């Protein structure tokens, strides 16, 4: 009798605790989240696994996370080349190509967007809402659609197969969305601050550079990050614009690994891990601000 | 004494940073120096790229500065007396005309329009040919060497422009303009957008009414006319869009692709966000792990997943094979439900992800859903966190059930977040083919192509430029129609552009 009583009490406590979530529900939530996490992380771990496999057992049906005879050979080959095969490593070249192109495009697009978003946020000028709607509409243009005319245009300007051509092709693509995002952020900064400064004799330009820009530096960083991430792993435009091996950005570069199935699969995985680690670290580190930037932009429109 | 300490405190971080960077450099050097011969990158290549890129940035900045000063003087200065009015407006008119001529010359150079040979063309090309003549003069007069001619000519040009602007500044007086600054701020972005989005768009429209292809050497020998546009349109709707695929077949697949993807993204994101949105331990940990698919560069994720769909060595087939063996084993050992297990063993097994059109489509769907859920989850979680607790407390007092609260509080209050997210999600998914391209390349037999990837193929594998342009226009209008209808129904963007 007494024993049953304990069981019933446990049962009640476990499934119908009065306040908050019941332990059963919490258990269920954690279980579901763990499953979701495994699904989210496992494919990434598989890449690490493949990168650690020795070259002779690349093709295996084993599902172990740390493979047998794990080795760092693939990393060595990707980073420093393979002297025994008389092959130089292009890894740093690709990284440098990507970095230089994407850095410049991000600087250009954030600078353009930061300045014009301020006008869209604070001034009521003719063509303002038309401009905003127009910027939104440009998002509907398929990526591949402008690629063809841009390609022909760059060919006429003799800029195919040059990093500058790629910079031109990238530079404006993220501007419209960035303007929308930054405008949303500027809108949340109270106008009173600027009005006070204006009364004290500051010019409009000064209120922008001294008040708005410093206050919005987190969102500028987010915009920069977005623009950087967008260009950093872009593949299709780069493929059309760049054909010369020495100009390849890393997505094109590691694709040359991935095309040959057998030997280079390990190299591909190692290169992927090396590239993904800093990017993911940066992303996860900044994800809190990324999220606030995204939702602010969308809540405020 | 105190001053010294504060100086130390002020500069210590900077010094530490510098020391840290130097140490990092030395370590990297020590690691990489022995392998320098194996690395195909040296300081000379780095420096030449930096020079190239900073020249480019400088050129853009200079160009923007000229435009800004020009418009600044139009908005914020006015001539001080009648005579100066004539001079100032004349200079401004000439500069404007030169800019206009340069733009038309650019159109001519890139084949948007083709000016007939003759007086008018020479007039349009005057600024460009004048600049070339200046360079040539500098070289023939032995003032500079041929390599530096263009640089010196540009500098000269800027000196002249600067002098003209100074002259205008002298002849004018300040004027109050309330919205002038707004236009000055918007102009640089608009120039960029006009040059790189609108101009290509116009070009696309022109191309759509042409027979440009590899045979006509792109636009060089292409002919333009309404009949070509009509022909392209007819081919699009009745002929083959890339190689064998037909338009409506691909359109249907694209709609399916978009609907399935966005549905799963929103539903999966909603589930994850609702699971995470509660006071609980390890929340940050879960959130970090859950955004992995978003954080990993798409290119890497797609290429890695492509390998996982391999017939023998990919994860999915290994798992399916294991399940198959498990059931086969079970049916042999357990007599009770043997028929059921053997049926399962017969029907579950490795799938040819790359040869079978259906499974190929499933494979890209799995990949894209996996990639897209974290983004939606994060957006929805942000929306959930902005909903005040008071609503739920009030509803609880009134005895509302969990489902009622979700239906009547959560969903309506999520709408401002969800509406733009869904629109952008649909547009992006509709246009997103890098995953498809990297995993199946549209194969087998173009059975996993969506509209945009067919278009990419038509342009860069079959070189049907005119046709591709018409194709792109049709896709654009499909999306535009969708967005307009969606916004009409939900009244979405009004608050944002008020």
Folded structure, characterized:
The complex is a heterodimer of chains A (301) and B (498). Chain A is mainly alpha-helical and 301 residues long. Chain A has two domains: 27-54 and 67-71, no CATH class; 91-299, MetI-like fold, CATH 1.10.3720.10. Chain A has helices at 2-15, 23-52, 73-80, 91-122, 128-138, 143-156, 163-171, 175-188, 191-199, 204-215, 217-232, 236-241, 250-259, 264-299. Chain B has 498 residues and is mostly helical. Chain B has two domains: 45-177, no CATH class; 245-497, Orthogonal Bundle (MetI-like fold). Chain B has 20 helices and two strands. Chain B has helices at residues 2-32, 43-76, 82-109, 119-124, 126-140, 149-171, 180-208, 226-238, 247-276, 283-290, 292-295, 298-308, 315-333, 338-347, 357-385, 389-397, 402-431, 434-439, 451-460, 465-490, and strands at 77-79, 172-174. In chain B, strands 1-2 form a two-stranded antiparallel ribbon. In chain B, helix 2 packs across helix 7, helix 9 (247-276) runs parallel beside helix 15 (357-385) and helix 19 (451-460) packs antiparallel against helix 20. The longest helix of chain B is centred in the first third of the chain and has 34 residues, at 43-76. Chain B starts with a helix and ends in an 8-residue tail after the last helix. Classes of the chains: A mainly alpha (301), B mainly alpha (498). Chains A and B meet through helix 2, helix 4, helix 5, helix 6 and helix 7 of A and helix 2, helix 7, helix 9, helix 10 and helix 11 of B.
């Amino acid at each position: 009798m007494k024993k049953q009583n304990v069981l019933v009490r446990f049962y009640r406590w476990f499934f119908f605790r009065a306040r908050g979530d019941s332990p059963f529900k919490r258990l269920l939530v954690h279980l579901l989240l763990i499953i979701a996490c495994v699904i989210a992380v496992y494919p990434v771990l598989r890449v690490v696994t493949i990168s650690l496999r020795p070259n002779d057992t690349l093709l295996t049906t084993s599902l172990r996370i740390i493979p047998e005879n794990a080795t760092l050979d693939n990393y060595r080959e990707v980073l420093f080349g393979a002297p025994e095969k008389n092959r130089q490593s292009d890894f740093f070249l690709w990284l440098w190509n990507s970095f230089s192109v994407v850095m410049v495009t991000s600087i250009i697009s954030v600078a353009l967007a930061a300045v014009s978003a301020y006008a869209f946020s604070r001034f009521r000028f003719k063509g303002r809402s038309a401009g905003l709607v127009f910027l939104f509409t440009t998002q509907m243009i398929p990526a591949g659609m402008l690629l063809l005319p841009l390609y022909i245009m760059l060919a006429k300007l003799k800029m195919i197969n040059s990093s500058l051509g790629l910079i031109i092709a990238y530079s404006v693509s993220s501007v419209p969305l960035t303007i929308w995002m930054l405008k949303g952020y500027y809108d949340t900064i109270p106008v009173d601050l600027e009005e006070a400064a204006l009364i004290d004799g500051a010019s409009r330009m000064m209120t922008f550079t001294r008040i708005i820009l410093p206050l919005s530096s987190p969102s500028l960083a987010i915009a920069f990050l977005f623009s950087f991430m967008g260009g950093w792993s872009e593949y299709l435009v780069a493929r059309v614009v760049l054909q010369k091996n020495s100009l390849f950005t890393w997505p094109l570069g590691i694709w040359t690994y991935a095309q040959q199935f057998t030997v280079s699969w390990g190299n591909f995985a190692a290169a992927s891990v090396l590239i993904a680690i800093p990017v993911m670290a940066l992303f996860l580190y900044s994800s809190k601000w990324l999220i606030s930037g995204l939702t602010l932009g969308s809540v405020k429109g | 004494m105190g001053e010294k300490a504060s100086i130390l405190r002020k500069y210590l971080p900077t010094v530490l940073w510098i020391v840290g960077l130097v140490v990092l450099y030395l370590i990297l050097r020590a690691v990489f120096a022995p392998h320098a011969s194996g690395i195909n990158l040296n300081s000379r290549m780095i420096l030449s790229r930096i020079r190239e890129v900073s020249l480019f940035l400088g050129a853009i900045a200079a160009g923007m500065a000229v435009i800004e000063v020009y418009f600044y003087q139009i908005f914020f200065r006015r001539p001080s007396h009648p005579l100066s009015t004539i001079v100032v407006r004349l200079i401004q008119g000439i500069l404007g005309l030169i800019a206009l001529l340069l733009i038309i010359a650019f159109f001519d150079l890139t084949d948007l329009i083709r000016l007939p040979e003759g007086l008018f063309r020479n007039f349009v090309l005057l600024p460009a040919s004048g600049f070339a003549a200046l360079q040539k003069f500098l070289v023939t007069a032995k003032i500079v060497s041929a390599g530096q001619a263009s640089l010196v000519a540009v500098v000269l040009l800027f000196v002249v422009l600067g002098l003209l602007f100074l002259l205008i500044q002298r002849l004018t007086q300040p004027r109050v303009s309330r919205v002038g600054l707004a236009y000055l701020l918007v102009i640089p972005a608009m120039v960029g957008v006009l040059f790189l989005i609108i101009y290509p768009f116009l070009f696309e429209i022109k191309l759509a009414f042409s027979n440009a292809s590899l045979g006509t050497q792109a636009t060089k020998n292409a002919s333009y006319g309404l009949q070509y546009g009509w022909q392209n349109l007819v081919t699009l709707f009745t002929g083959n869009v890339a190689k064998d695929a037909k338009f409506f077949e691909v359109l249907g697949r694209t709609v399916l692709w978009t609907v399935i993807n966005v549905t799963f993204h929103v539903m999966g994101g909603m589930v994850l966000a609702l699971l995470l949105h509660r006071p609980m331990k390890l929340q940050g940990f879960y959130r970090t792990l859950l955004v992995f698919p978003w954080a990993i560069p798409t290119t890497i994720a797609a290429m890695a997943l492509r390998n996982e769909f391999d017939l023998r060595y990919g994860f999915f087939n290994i798992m399916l094979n294991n399940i198959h063996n498990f059931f086969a084993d079970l049916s042999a050992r357990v007599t009770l439900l043997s028929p059921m297990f053997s049926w399962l063993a017969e029907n579950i097994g490795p799938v040819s992800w790359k040869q079978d059109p259906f499974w190929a489509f499933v494979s890209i769907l799995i990949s894209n859903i996996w990639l897209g859920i974290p983004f939606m989850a994060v957006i929805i979680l942000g929306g959930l966190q902005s909903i005040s607790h008071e609503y739920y407390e009030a509803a609880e007092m009134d005895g509302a059930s969990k489902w009622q609260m979700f239906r009547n509080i959560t969903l309506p209050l999520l709408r401002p977040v969800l509406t733009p997210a869904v629109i952008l999600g649909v547009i992006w998914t509709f246009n997103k083919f890098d995953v498809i391209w990297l995993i199946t390349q549209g194969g087998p037999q173009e059975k996993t192509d969506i509209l945009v990837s067919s278009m990419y193929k038509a342009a860069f594998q079959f070189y049907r430029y005119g046709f591709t342009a018409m194709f792109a226009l049709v896709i654009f209008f499909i999306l535009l129609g969708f967005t307009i209808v969606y916004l009409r129904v939900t009244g979405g963007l009004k608050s944002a552009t008020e």
